[in-house]
């Protein structure tokens, strides 16, 4: 059973209510020192591929297609270990997914949170 999964920007102040804090970006956030990040893990392998990230460019009009392609990427065998690890965390602890993206509602963290809570069934 999945516990509470939330998402937010890594630049926001951490909170005891965050639970496990996992960065889900492929690249390290600009201007953020690793010592100041207050993360439990950095799971680069659950982030969208570089090609998908560049194609998307954080354009909200492309979000539906980004979401579809990203969910497809998450099913790739090369990502299985990282995806299973994230599911395990979500099944046992409160989880906050972190991203540097300004528009978190249109980010991979939002897609992952929805997917991990069962609301993220692939749409056709």
Walkthrough of the structure:
This protein has 124 residues and is α/β, with parallel strands linked by helices. It has one domain. 33% of the residues lie in helices and 13% in strands. The longest helix is centred in the last third of the chain and has 13 residues, at 80-92. Mean pLDDT is 90; it is low at 120-124.
Distance between the termini: 25 Å
Structural class: alpha/beta
Helix content: 25-40%
Strand order, sheet with most strands: 1-4-2-3
Return residue spans where pLDDT drops below 50 for at least 5 consecutive residues. Answer: 120-124
Strand content: 5-15%
The coarse overall form would be: globular
Main sheet overview: 4 strands, parallel
As a whole number of angstroms, the C-alpha radius of gyration is: 14 Å
The total number of structural domains is 1
Helix count equals 4
Count of distinct strands: 4
Oligomer: single chain
Elements, N to C (H/E): EEEHHHEH
**Average pLDDT:** 90
Please give a quick description of this structure.
The chain is α/β, with parallel strands linked by helices.
What keywords describe this structure?
globular, 4 helices, 13% strand, four-stranded parallel sheet, 124 residues, disordered C terminus
List the helices and strands and how they pair.
Elements: E1 5-9, E2 20-23, E3 41-42, H1 50-56, H2 63-74, H3 80-92, E4 95-99, H4 108-116
Parallel strand pairs: 1-4, 2-3, 2-4
């Amino acid at each position: 059973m999945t516990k509470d999964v939330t998402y937010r920007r890594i630049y926001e102040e951490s909170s005891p209510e965050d639970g496990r804090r996992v960065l889900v970006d492929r690249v390290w956030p600009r201007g953020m020192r690793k010592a100041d990040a207050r993360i439990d893990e950095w799971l680069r392998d659950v982030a969208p591929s570089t090609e998908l990230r560049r194609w998307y460019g954080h354009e909200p009009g492309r979000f539906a297609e980004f979401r579809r392609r990203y969910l497809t990427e998450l099913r790739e065998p090369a990502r299985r270990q990282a995806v299973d690890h994230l599911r395990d965390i979500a099944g046992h602890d409160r989880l906050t997914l972190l991203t540097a993206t300004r528009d978190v509602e249109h980010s991979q963290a939002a897609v992952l949170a929805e997917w991990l809570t069962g609301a993220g069934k692939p749409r056709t």
